[in-house]
Amino acid sequence: QKNLVVEEKKHCNVGTIGHVDHGKTTLTAAITKVLSKEGTTKYIPYDKIDKAPEEKARGITINAAHVGYSTKNRHYAHTDCPGHADYIRNMISGTSQMDAAILVVAATDGPMPQTREHLLLAKQVGVQYILVFINKVDLVDEEVLDLVEIEMRDMLTDFGYDGNNIPIIKGSALKALNDDPSDIGVPSINHLLDSLDNHVPTIVRDLESPFLMPIDKAFTVPGRGTVVVGTIKRGVMKKNDEAHLMGFGIKVKTTLSDMQIFRSSVLEAIAGDNVGVLLRSIKLRSVESGMLLCAAGSEEMSNHFKAKIYFLARSEGGRKKPVFSKYSQQMFSGTWNIACRIDLEPTIEMLMPGDHAEVYLTLLEGMVMTTGQPFTIRENNVTVATGIVTETLK
Ligand code: GDP
Ligand code: MG
């Protein structure tokens, strides 16, 4: 019998977001420099971060630097992008889904258009935690700083974050990078890191919610029946539990008659486990990858979803022509695909290649898709758009 230990997620995905030139890359370099003194982290200089290698993610090219550092409590994987367009692509494609974002705003400018746009995107793609670093405080006086803080708290509240309680740290990334020991130098970085450690909770595996497992593959074991394989996303599966197998418009009830982890039978399996499940009275032909196995009655299928989408520019291999409502193509997510129609907001007449927007998806058959689930749209096997599900609609 397995031990039900709740493992801490010692790992956290973060990233710097915010308006160009507000100091995101300087801050990223400063964080690694400050932590390098403690011996847990390798210092990555500014030039190394800004020369981010190109990444081919699902057919689109993103420039993104992935920097690792460790505090006493946690390991962080930190994403910093060189340009505004890289942020849009990175966030909408879900390639480095952030648990938390550090919104950098220069005290000299206050919030600017890209500050708002990145924050809106963060909200839409499901970034749960935001911290604010008001940078360049070496260049302004106290009153200006207070005004910027008020503006930021209002803006966070407008976008649906807890504006009153979000940590706002004031400092100078440049001074910290130059080892300045005054309050706005190195200590401001330590303050930021403490806030990250404390404000963003350690994410534990969800063992409380009803179980849910996306199916990666299915096969027949002669004489026994159909086995589905996948990684349990949340909850605990117990032998003989009742379940629903659903997706592609099909919903069938079944029972978990046997479960195997690394080829040995287990009585229960928990979130994070990769497991093979023998399903009672299920025919292989009714199982496809992309279907979902969930606790009986816990999930509903839908044909309708809201999503954030980015259409690749022509130079990225995208479409040559604009997209209008009722645009129909094949949608790909994980190991499966389905015919899908895309409709624009009534106020938007069309989207040009290179544009991003919130859109409505209608799938040919009912599916279960979760918030933050990434997908692409392909025309004749060429990726023309990338997106992330933001809401399930009835
Ligand atoms: P990014 O576009 O947001 O990544 O911004 P950078 O990190 O490249 O910084 C833009 C410019 O602001 C650079 O010239 C930095 O040296 C400068 N800068 C960054 N932080 C500070 C700061 O705290 N004080 C001052 N005076 N300049 C800063
Ligand atoms: Mg930068």
UniProtKB/TrEMBL annotation:
Its main location: cytoplasm. Residues 9-204 form the Tr-type G domain. It is an enzyme of class 3 (hydrolase). InterPro entries: EF-Tu_GTP-bd (IPR041709), EF-Tu_GTPase (IPR050055), EFTu-like_2 (IPR004161), G_TR_CS (IPR031157), P-loop_NTPase (IPR027417), Small_GTP-bd (IPR005225), T_Tr_GTP-bd_dom (IPR000795), Transl_B-barrel_sf (IPR009000). Keywords: Cytoplasm, Elongation factor, GTP-binding, Hydrolase, Magnesium, Metal-binding, Nucleotide-binding, Protein biosynthesis. It holds the Pfam family GTP_EFTU. GO terms for biological process: mitochondrial translational elongation. GO terms for molecular function: GTP binding; GTPase activity; metal ion binding; translation elongation factor activity. It is found in: Cytoplasm. Its EC number is 3.6.5.3. The keyword Endoplasmic reticulum does not apply. GO terms for cellular component: mitochondrion. Monomer. Belongs to the TRAFAC class translation factor GTPase superfamily. Classic translation factor GTPase family. EF-Tu/EF-1A subfamily. This is protein-synthesizing GTPase. It comes from Leptosia nina.
